Queue: 4 jobs
Job 1
Amino acid sequence: MSLVDRLLNEYAAAFRAGDTDPWPYLDQVDGDEREELDRRMDEFLSKVEPVAWDPEAYAGSPAARIVDQIMPSLLVPQGGWRALLPSLRIGKQIKREKVDAELASALDADSPQEAEKVATYYHDMEQGNLDPRGVSEIVLAALSGIYGTTVEELRRAGAATGPPGGAGDVVFARVVGDTDEDFVLSSEDRSGFTRIKGEPDRIDLLFTDPDYDDPDR
């Protein structure tokens, strides 16, 4: 049995027992194995019957008290977005394709090319390969709506992600000057657009300029 198979089986057993946190398992692998485990967790969740929520039974329960005690630390987990975003997504049993589609819709990414770019940027956020300081409030507001959290909580977790280069030796650089200069995101990840020619478009700015105020919205 491969390491990914073992971790998936352990996660599935923990999930059925009520523990939906994926991070203890994702944290044991990196690179291709981590992406494979993440994908297979998605597949597992797509086949699991959602558990009915009973707010009356939850209120005042031991689980509720534990959540109240540990929630502050969970909001800024070790690893920042790289830990928090997959945890939120898998905990809510949402496949990444659905997050990609909802985020693209919220950002008015109407063309297939824009939607694909949004998905790639979000992938980089989950992998810790995007500088959190550059992500606009517009993107964070959209994600907070998808995950039922707040912009402030996402921003705090982003601050815990660490400086660029902390995940996968990623180096970010913005070349400022004439519009015919390159807008560079130098990275070893497989984002598919580590170098953007010419002036960045509105999707690039949404994810790389914290002060960007989208005129099309």
Job 2
Amino acid sequence: MQKPQAIIFDLDGVLTDTSEYHYQAWKHLADDEGIPFTHEENDAHLRGVGRRESLMYLLKGRSVSASQLTEMMERKNRYYNELIKQMTPNEVIEGGRELLQEIRDAGIKTAVASASKNCMVVLERLELVRYFDGIADGYSVVHGKPAPDVFVYAAGTVHVPVSACLGVEDADAGIESIKAAGMVALGIGPKERFQRADKVLSTLARHRLQDMLD
């Protein structure tokens, strides 16, 4: 893989595993509403997907009003925010800070492209903000993943053309977003999760820049 001018990271499930907190918050909401919901469903259908789309899956066709939808999304977010209050800098993947520093030392820009509206809170709790040249989150764009918008926006924050960016994602919807943006896509997780990733690593933990580019 050619050395990119920028590497754009999803946050949840890539540099930290907040996916478990998201699952617990959705599970709490599902239990409130008497809706069966499993870990397997979460991984298969909600990973990397925005809050509204996730809720529509969770409801499984149940009819609710617009105001009920809004209230449920807000309730899930309250549950999630309560859970992430306990996050510490120790929840960055092993070697994650060193990897981000190595990328910056190599003259490559770094950015975050997260679907989460809680992205900044998580970055602050993890003490990662200073490692990024640009941050795009759930407030930055109207259309979430798998639309390309958040990755295109992130590339704009670091003034690098999309064709010179490497996008890093743990969800297939995110890989779709990266490819639609015209970037090279690195998937993090099991190979069978991804349809279109250019390269897959099981994790970024304990990895170096060269591992991402080889």
Job 3
Amino acid sequence: MEKLDKVGSRIKRSLNNKDRSREKGLPLTRKVIRFSSEIIKMAHRGQLQESRTLLEEAGKILREAQKSLEKYPDIYYGGFLQSAEKEYAEATITLALIKKQSLPSPEVLKVGETSYLRGMGEAIGEMRRYILDSIRKDKLSDCERLLGLMDEMYYFLFSFDYPEPLVKGLRRTVDSARGIIERTRADVTNAVRQKRLEEKLSK
């Protein structure tokens, strides 16, 4: 039988390596989350070039975090890295929608499938915020475009009817998105009717 001190030394060496990787990856993921929030704020303010530059930086940091944890699946899939991936996906998708670009795939973003899907669901909420700002600016054509995209994303997400351990909160996100879309549709409809009435009265 192997001596316990040798077994203990081997276990401690493994745990020390894991701990170092975790301590390296954790602050990186927090930075990605912070940057992603700032990217979305910039996008809403119309600072599209600045948000694109910060998005590229966030992507580099995320890949560094992934690399630091890839040797240890139990830490890699522990949750905090997936939260960073979700926030990064949300920021990227939000920016693409605002800039009228094609949505990137999870492979392009280098994020997990569930992180990507949840990030898309969260982006629907950001589109409501953007639409409300557009209504105030009287940019109704853009509102109708984005509302259509919100519907398309909702039905895309709705098709992923898998057990909770596989999609981890996606169903709640999708249920919330349905309500967000319906409220936004009502706001856009009222704004369009008001605009048409104003145009008739002006004639």
Job 4
Amino acid sequence: MSSAIRKIALLNWPLLLLVLLLAAFGIFAIYSATWMRDQDFWSRQLIWLLVGLVICAVVSFRSYEWVRVGAVPLYIAAVLALVLTHFFGAKVYGARSWLDLGILNFQPSQLAIIASIMVLSVFLSSFEEMPAPLRIAVCGIIAAVPFVLILIQPDLGSAITWMPVFLAMLYAARIPARYLISMILLAVAVIPLVVNFGLRPYQRQRIVTFLDPELDPRGAGWTINQSLTAIGSGGWEGKGFKAPNTLNELGFLPSTIVHNDFIFSVIGEQHGFIGAGLLLVSFAALIGLGLLVALRASDDLGRLLAVGLTTLIFTHAFMNVGMTIGVTPITGLPLPLVSYGGSFLLAVCFSIGLLQSIWVHRAGASAGLRIRK
């Protein structure tokens, strides 16, 4: 049996099938959210999905050991891309967070966070004997550079996702709990300073609206109130596909971002509690499979990579769904594999490929199969 066939056999098939199912449902959901406006976002998403699956396959079948060599160059490239974005990026919805590459509006923050996960994984797995305070300090510097560059764009949503990823990776690296608790308490203590002096007025307004949407029901609180109404109106079974007179069809949900930021609102309205619940169960299964990859990884590098990437996917899903139901502030984060967005979909496919690589080569080692890297 050839090495390629062995690797195909060793793939984490439940993970792969679940990803394909979510991505296919995402294309359907994007079409459902935009068909009444005669937009072709769903067809563009299909093209990016096909490209993403190719990336996923290439990364899956190659040993993740390349990360030891490739992490730092990728990190440097991502930081440079963030710097370029600061000066030459396109401004969208108040944030200069996109680079126009012609065929694709590329968001460097996605690449920067994944590259940072890779660098942290290499560092934490290579210097386990280093004193914990020094390890935390070095990791803090690695994480702070992209974090600050992302925050000043300002892309508050992407910056927020970096915090739980960073803490999860330190925990997985066996950093003593007392240090992690101290970091969390320090972060909580500086939140008022960040809110009052580090955020733009519209970002502060989002937080105020999150705490009480009725303070400005026709202004800043309009979107979250309409989202809650749409999801609630779906009931148990939903109004159905292409149902007439939905809040989305009538324009009560923001048409410019309903297919990415508020796709869950459309799903809740059309498919009800049952459909939305099944989607959440699917994401829970995806996170569980990612953590299983981490538990079964053959070394610390694979384990840390799996923890970081899985936490990143979880944070995006939690924040996206949370902002549509009033649990978290509106941050503009997409729902992995479901929301529209080419660069983010490619980033998720790359992450899934790394998870598969960790699984394939761990499984090959444990099964006694000789797999050429």
